[in-house]
Amino acid sequence: MLVQQQPPLHLTYCLNIHPGESWAENFRGIHQHALEVKNRVCPDRPFGLGLRLGRAAADALAAPARRHHLRDFLRDHGLYVFTINGFPYGQFHGGPVKERVYSPDWRTPERLHYTNLLADILADLLPEGMPGSISTVPGSWKPWIRHESDLKSMTASLTACAQYLAGIRTREGADIALALEPEPGCFLDVPSEAVRFFREHLFPGGAEVQRHVGICMDACHVAVQFEQPAAVLAQLLAAGIRVPKVQLSSALEADGSASALKDFSEPVYLHQVRARAANGAMTSWTDLPLALASGKLEKAGMVRVHFHMPLYMSDVGEGLRTTSSAMDDAFFRRLKSGECPHLEIETYTFDVLPDKPPNVVDHIVRELEWVLQRV
Fold this sequence. Notes:
It is a single chain. With 375 residues, the protein is of the alpha/beta class. The chain has one domain: TIM Barrel (Alpha-Beta Barrel), CATH 3.20.20.150. It is 39% helix and 19% strand. The protein contains 13 helices and 15 strands. The chain has helices at residues 23-41, 55-61, 64-76, 109-125, 148-172, 191-202, 207-212, 219-224, 229-238, 258-261, 288-294, 329-335, 360-372; strands spanning 2-4, 9-13, 47-52, 79-85, 132-136, 176-180, 213-218, 245-248, 250-254, 273-276, 282-285, 302-309, 315-317, 320-322, 342-345. The strands form two sheets. The chain has a nine-stranded mixed beta sheet with strand order 1-2-15-8-7-6-5-4-3. Strands 11-10-12-9-14-13 form a six-stranded antiparallel beta sheet. Helix 4 links the parallel strand 4 (79-85) and strand 5. Helix 2 (55-61) crosses helix 4 and helix 9 packs parallel to helix 12 (329-335). The protein is globular and about 60 Å long.
């Protein structure tokens, strides 16, 4: 929904909270849940959607007839699409995902072709004159990048995608930005790595890359790294990197309370862990089960876990809390400046929360209201 007229600022929630891989399942999530959210949050105004389309759903929407049907549905129900989560290519619910969420990565033609298809779909759905965004894998999972050829392949694919997006803008007038989403343990991990990669590898590709490739800043990922969201936004924008999309979510935080964290150790998603000692020394684990098995959490200092927590929750109990307070007044002032036009709430972990709220729509509405109170 449009939460600020000038400069324009759009807010939504990511539909990846609703399980489903096929387009039929995705559409059911819109019909059964997103419509109810709209009717409760902004019944008299258009409500924007943050689609999550894996490869199977994107292939289905490649058919013009299905897109035509979707456009009619959006128009008839006061909905519009302005952003797509193009990060997970394959299965994202109902079974182990872990590191597979990064595959295929930006070294591969599969990732490029899939993302170009998402751009075609978005260009067909975007309201006239409204910019679009697609969030994506931050290059790759860091352990997979071993050779200079890997770096060159990623750069070439991202440059090719920028050129494809420039072609869409020329032919159809749709201005779409690809937004790499840094994440702990990935090729683009901390903000300084993103700045270096853009300056040394992407920006030499020319104006089309600078216009069409940027960063999706995820507030949960930033918090896990013990960074401040407002400072990260300032760092990226000062480096000339676009931030077309910001994902709003909190991380899980504890003071070495390993016993309480056990409830959040689950087999579906990757929950990277970072710990900061009193002297500033950092310790990292690839996943929460590994951190728990190490026996070192109790003395590691402050611990943060990549587990997307509800925005409205601050105290989790049993010595656990969230990082929601890191999204402070300075952060929201920056968002209202219009430099980051798309805001998307992302709490895809709803189904694996130890004590999840009983109703997903109630949960989504509470998260949207939390943001609306601040913007």
